[in-house]
Amino acid sequence: MEGSQAVAATVAMCRPEVICAYPISPQTHIVEGLSAIVKRGDLAPCEFINVESEFAAMSVAIGASATGARTYTATASQGLLYMAEALYNAAGLGLPIVMTVANRAIGAPINIWNDHSDSMSQRDSGWIQLYAESNQEALDVHIQAYRLAEQLSLPVMVCMDGFILTHAYERVDLPEQEQVDAFLPPFEPRQVLDPDDPVTIGAMVGPEAFTEVRYLMHARQMQALDAIPHIAEDFERSFGRPSGGLLRTYRADDAETVIVALGSVLGTIEEVIDDLRDEGASIGAMAVRCFRPWPIDEIREALGRAKRVVVLERAFAVGVGGIVGQNVRLALSGLPVAIHDVVAGLGGRPITKRSLHRLFSEALADELDPARLTFLDLDHERVERELRRMQDVERSGPHAASFLRDVGGAGARPR
Amino acid sequence: MDTPFAITLQVGSSLANKTGSWRTERPLYVQRMPPCNDACPAGENIQQWLYRAEEGDYEGAWRQLMDDNPFPAIMGRVCYHPCESACNRGRLDEVVGINSVERFLGDEAIRCGWTIPADAQPSGKRVLVVGAGPSGLSAAYQLRRRGHDVVVRDAGPRAGGMMRFGIPRYRLPRDVLDAEIRRILDMGVELELDHQVQDVLAEQREGGFDAVFLAIGAHIGKRAYIPAGSASRILDAVALLRGMEGEETPRLGRRVVIYGGGNTAMDAARTARRLGAEEAIVVYRRTRERMPAHDIEVEEALEEGILMRWLSTIKQVDDGAVLVERMELDETGFPQPTGEVEELEADSLVLALGQEVDLSLLDGVPGIEVDDGVVQVAPNMMTGRPGIFAGGDMVPAERTVTVGIGHGKKAALHIDAWLAGRSFTAAPKRDLVTFDMLTPWYYSDAPKTVRPTLAAVRRQSTFDEVVGGLDESNALFEARRCMSCGNCFACDNCYGVCPDNAVIKLDPTGAYQYEIDLDYCKGCGICAEECPCGAIAMEAETI
Amino acid sequence: MPYQQIKFYQAGSFVVGNRLLDPERRTVQADGERSNTLTSGHRACQGCGEALGARYALDAAMRATAGKLIATNATGCLEVFSTPYPESSWQLPWIHSLFGNAPAVATGVAAALKAKGRTDVRVVGQGGDGGTVDIGFGCLSGMFERNDDVLFICYDNEAYMNTGVQRSGATPPAARTSTTQPVGDEPGNVFGQGKSAPLIAMAHEIPYVATATVADLRDIEHKVQHAMELRGARYVHILVTCPLGWGCASADSIKVARLAMETGLFPVFEAERGEVTSVLKIRRRAPVEEYLKLQRRYAHLFGKEPRSEVIARLQERADRNIRRFGLVDEDTVEEPGGVSAQESESVGSAVDEESNATRLLEERH
Hints:
The complex is a heterotrimer of chains A (415), B (543) and C (365).
Chain A: H1 3-13, E1 18-21, H2 28-40, E2 47-50, H3 54-66, E3 71-75, H4 77-82, H5 84-93, E4 98-103, H6 117-121, E5 128-131, H7 135-152, E6 156-161, H8 177-183, E7 199-201, H9 210-239, E8 247-250, E9 257-261, H10 265-278, E10 283-288, E11 290-292, H11 296-303, E12 308-313, H12 324-331, E13 338-343, H13 353-364, E14 373-375, H14 380-393, H15 398-409
Parallel strand pairs in A: 1-2, 1-3, 3-4, 4-6, 5-6, 9-10, 9-12, 12-13, 13-14
Antiparallel strand pairs in A: 5-11, 8-10
Chain B: E1 8-10, E2 25-29, H1 35-39, H2 46-54, H3 58-66, H4 72-78, H5 82-86, H6 98-112, E3 126-130, H7 134-145, E4 149-153, H8 162-165, H9 174-185, E5 190-192, H10 200-207, E6 211-214, E7 220-221, E8 234-236, H11 237-243, E9 255-259, H12 263-274, E10 279-283, H13 295-303, E11 307-309, E12 312-318, E13 321-329, E14 335-345, E15 348-351, E16 355-356, E17 370-371, E18 374-375, E19 388-390, H14 401-419, H15 456-461, H16 472-480, H17 493-497, E20 503-505, E21 514-516, H18 526-530, E22 536-540
Parallel strand pairs in B: 3-4, 3-6, 4-5, 6-19, 8-15, 9-10, 9-15, 10-11
Antiparallel strand pairs in B: 2-22, 7-16, 12-13, 13-14, 17-18, 20-21
Chain C: H1 2-5, H2 49-64, E1 69-73, H3 77-82, E2 94-96, H4 102-115, E3 122-128, H5 129-134, H6 137-146, E4 151-156, H7 197-203, E5 208-213, H8 217-229, E6 234-239, H9 243-246, H10 253-263, E7 269-272, E8 275-279, E9 284-285, H11 288-292, H12 308-325, E10 333-334, H13 356-364
Parallel strand pairs in C: 1-2, 1-3, 3-4, 4-6, 5-6, 9-10
Antiparallel strand pairs in C: 5-7, 7-8
Helix pairs in contact in C: 2-8, 4-6
């Protein structure tokens, strides 16, 4: 069945009481599916609110969650940015909202296809971010997300690649309602708007306590690093399959080179790794399933023995480089591991086995410059032509000229 | 609830923040002087009795009124109500009909038989009151309430003085007068009629009186020299009005000329009409604006068909006619003769030129000072002779019943103090409330209830009351139009309008209904500004 | 006689309490046991109209719901002065989320309550004019359009006071703010097209829209009470004085709001399903100068060279409101100088036995 429909069916089994959504591709099929379920009466009690913007969607979710309702919404791309202010607010208030992000690029230029620029842009919002590799995992992680969110009173973002997962038809094991009910206890909010026990939620906090509030927020998010593996273990016991957790490695225990990535691209990476292993290379992979909080110790443990790490990511920090790569560097700081940042699959560009094979081979051959940001499958001719044209019409200082020359000279094509 | 640190707070916790420290001014509940009280010659606390009447507590209102004035039913008919002239409500729509409410209360008291107890501890002191007019009876009443033995002696055959012998019964029905006097006598005031006091010192000595209050009034009609023929009929207004109370009704004829411009002239003219005169003409030497008669009296007289000749003097009286000279005001506003004369037909001439006091009873009393025909008194109403006090028309003052009643009360307070060897000091006068101190938006706009007036025709032919009283519903209405100037009327505005909830509502039976919570009052001043009646002042904080 | 059937009161129906009224006919604010939803110790400026308006409105809503009320609050003065850590002035369940989302948060609360079967608990959203008329307008309109069971209350003080008196979409023409300086050809705020949130709310044809001012407590309470009797999206827009931002004396806070109403500059009315159902008549009509002169934000219109043409334009706005909403009738008393020639005809005698005040009293109870 389609990934979106499977997610919708699974979310419904989590019995959210309020669902609010504003349509944006590629999230639409999820909320359409939920709308249909609610409208049919298959999920009750549940209020489905068609809001007028993503900002309102998250705001309605805030109100509903603060009133003690299990709450769900979904978005993508521009929509996630449009609700950015409310994301921080939900996290600051510690409201256990679960939201699906059907990952999609951010414009301009407008682009509806998949990459991770949207969720990566909100990595510091205070939300827990879980990345699904497959539709099956997406379903499973949604169930775990509710348990995690409500246990810690923190919002959780379940990120799944737009179109690649949301619109893909795959065989999935839909859980039984009874299983979900048994796994997911009823929502008992940490705090709630209740006339019988009134409180003031959302006070103004000044310099005298703001640091402490932020510290406590950080501490609570760090607790997720312990909670997530427990919940994943519990899930496996209940549902009979492994899913979720902080990270997953593939043939990485003895690997000199480990490829690090998030989301659906892992499947392709594993196939390439199998091929390269067959060719005798010492290579493995690691999937980051929990990006926020950042499982720094677990990643150091997983990657600390490698000689070389290639971080393949579907987003980057313009003007800096890799995002996940920076985090990996933090985890591996002080260890003699070469770390390469590779930007791939932006705006829906396919990440092919062939390109990956070439990239990994270059890495294995020490042909990747660890100091440089690599863009997979960059059309060098086009970029260089444009850069030349730019140089003709405008003067550029040494930093930009140097960086752009490097970028132009780097990439998939070995020099 | 296990709430998270700082972002979630307990309700009402801001009570810990005492914002009173922001204040530079604090509100203060005050009681200011309402203009009605200020203007009342009898010193009535009008605002207070209206306050009670507003609630329908008519007996309470009446008792409040009776503190200052034992004649509400009489006052409600004959008082010229300076209170209403002063009433701030006149600036909003029309003045409050205070007088009508007073009359209603007075009538209600008579109807219900309310009485005032004379239950004060007997003082053992005796006071002689000379004159059973408004001033004397007022003093007697106040003294009796304070435990003194009071004997009232009057030269006339009936009590009431000018209330009986000077005010026509169409303005003051005698049953009302009798009832209010009876109530005073029932308190144990001794009344001796037909007893003309000739020698006040002798009577004081013989009667063992510790003090004397003189209030003999001014009963002698002033005469002017007017050349008159032998057959001409001339009488004075006082005699005419007094005659109305006697066995024989005075005879005036078909055409009557009244000379004078005061209230007595109006009473005489209106009485003449009622006695059957087809024509009653008031001749007065100045203009209408300068007539001493109260406007309402002139109005009612005109309504009844009384004719007026202003700027005229009477030169001569003959049988069946008077000769009138037209006058003209000079630049100082004084009337000057013009020499133009005219004859008016007249069967009789009534002189209403003012009254004089018969001071013979004071002959030989040392220390008494008489000036301009009246007895001089100190601010405590005492004459130059210690222990002898005087008031009413015989001392320098405006000659109205209300002033007389006021004198009676004031003298009684001083006599009471004097008898105890104290001196009475009135409470300091409070600030007068002017219209700009009010916030009139809060008062409903409502016209004054028009008193149901008897048909003018009926009024002319009988001695029924001219001005009808209010019934309960419109008396209540009228009372509720009072704006309670300067005195809290428990409207809850201050309690409601405070943005800081810093007004505490106290037990409604307390002297003040509210108190400022200085812990939280920021001193914004809204309560004072929005107090409808100006009963909150702002006072600088002393830091 | 007609007045025998009608009860007049010393201070009619306009004061807060009045001991002469039956207790059940007194205001919520007169009640010694009122909720004080916004309690003492808050940090609003002296004479804050918003603090007062919020307590008036929420206490009325508390009474109407028997205390089963939840409030959502936009960022702004009201939020800041009531909830600085560690003290809250609220005495009901209350949440502040963001500047622009209070209506949507309220929708979420209402949705949760509905899902939980707690429709006995009601929700009020509230914010200033910035949070309502400007940044929160999208969420507000969405809430209206869906007819969510939310009463939203705007406390309009006509500028961004919390941030230091900057212009908002609700700032009136000619008013000085810190972003509309009183200089140049058009001093103060421009004469724009205006943005009437109540009229736009009416265009949504929601069950109930009303305006009110902090100067007429009974009117506020009546409207909030009525609003709480209805279900669906409701909107009450209350003009509240900001002594700081408007430059008036703190003591004049209510007086200034009253003049906004009595000049016609702020029309007070009610509408149901998009149609005006009642109008609060002006009792004592005042010229706009009387209102403007009390406020330093209009000081540039007076001074040595009075800007009479600007004042005249403001008077035109007031006159237009009066015509458009029918704010003046035969019971309105004219204050000197307040009438323009073409309208004086419609103004009849000041009072009759069954005065406006009486009718108001009768209607309101």
